[in-house]
Amino acid sequence: MKYFSTRGGDEELSFEEVVLAGLAPDGGLYIPAEIPKLPENWEDDWSKLSYQDLAVAILSLFISPSELSREDITELVYNTYAYPQKFRDPLITPLVPLAEKRYILELFHGPTYAFKDLALQLLGNLFEFFLRRRNMRKTPEEPAERLTVVGATSGDTGSAAIYGLRNKANISIFILFPRGRVSEIQEAQMTTVTDDNVHNVRVAGTFDDCQDIVKSLFSDKEFNERHTLAAVNSINWARILVQIVYYFSAYFQLKKSLAGSGKPVKPDIQFVVPTGNFGDILAGYYAKRMMLPMRKLGIATNANDILTRFWKTGRYAKVNPSTGLGVRETLSPAMDITVSSNFERLLWYLAYQSSSPDDPRKRTTACETVAGWMEQVKKEGQIVVPDEVLRAAREDFVAEKADDAQITNTILKYYQGSPSYIPDPHTAVGLHVAPSVAKEEMWGVHVCIASSRLTLFI
Hints:
By secondary structure, this protein is an alpha/beta fold. It has 17 helices and 15 strands. The protein has helices spanning 15-21, 42-45, 51-62, 70-80, 116-136, 156-165, 184-191, 207-219, 221-227, 237-260, 279-289, 306-313, 343-354, 362-380, 387-396, 404-415, 425-441, and strands at 3-5, 8-13, 30-32, 95-99, 102-106, 147-152, 171-178, 198-203, 229-231, 269-274, 297-301, 315-317, 382-384, 397-401, 445-450. Helix 3 (51-62) crosses helix 10 (237-260).
């Protein structure tokens, strides 16, 4: 399996190269040269696998055995998802029933109580593995390779990245976060880690400002090469890859739950995903493209609704044209974003799908289209995609939003419900949106992604 940039599809890199690089030199994001097909008997063969073994099976589809053997992947995965040493639930991402047709997929049982632990614990181990292997090949006279990890956070990425990389040999981590715009607990999770390789930078601005700084550093070729930068934000392909696993885990857990209740065991499922940077739901898109059975993915945004507005109008605009406002501070701070970095990856697939089937340069044409769109966003703050691109986007997604009042009411509703459940403000966005996105589909089972534990935001 090889990978190429969304903005320039000629050069292909290995998995190791894209993990260590993070962002492509042309500013694009790396995507796989092809989306692998599932094994013929995957549904039977994988149905009884542990989360760890399911992760090994899925990661092996995207990583060439010449880079990482199945034994290497197994060791990395089992070291990452160790129960109870690192994760507090034996299922790692347990599926919890809320009502007859609604479930919560809890992704917050890792060290920092946020879903980012699932990817960043493994990413830290991958960084360490690749560096150790490279340095073992050097002569004693050669200097050891090092990584300088740089990331931007609105809360959960920073703490999860720090806990995944603290005290790792030959790795330093710098996390930028917006002053006054992360929860007190998450800021404490970051700033109370005293390992020598951990550095926090408080920025006067928004998450988008932090993310712009990080992207500019990666785009500076001389600076990047001098300091050997690596990314922990979801611009890093490994983050997306690892998150594909829990969609499959949810599917098998739901099948088991339905079988135990005597209901049909072929779940008709829709995932509803609270999202800001589009990474979590993009992993669901890859699972869908791999042919995991599911309906349209439900995008749930807060008042920073650039994604919802895109699916309604085809306009991707940093400033809301109806209010004239950019990023707004809300009760769900991890989603307070006006530029969704991973959306570029989806745009590539939409551009490719919408281009002429007779184009011999179809992949390159899609890259050129995306590069033009992203340059327009940078210069003008918005793009309007052609109608055929919007139609393609609506084939796999539906989007709605929730404001702070609706978030608060949803938390209260589920707390007072039976069974009582207390969602965090991000999960509440998904729970509020779920009935709205169901109207389009007119059917079955919702699985809402629970991204964090409520205690992070008290």
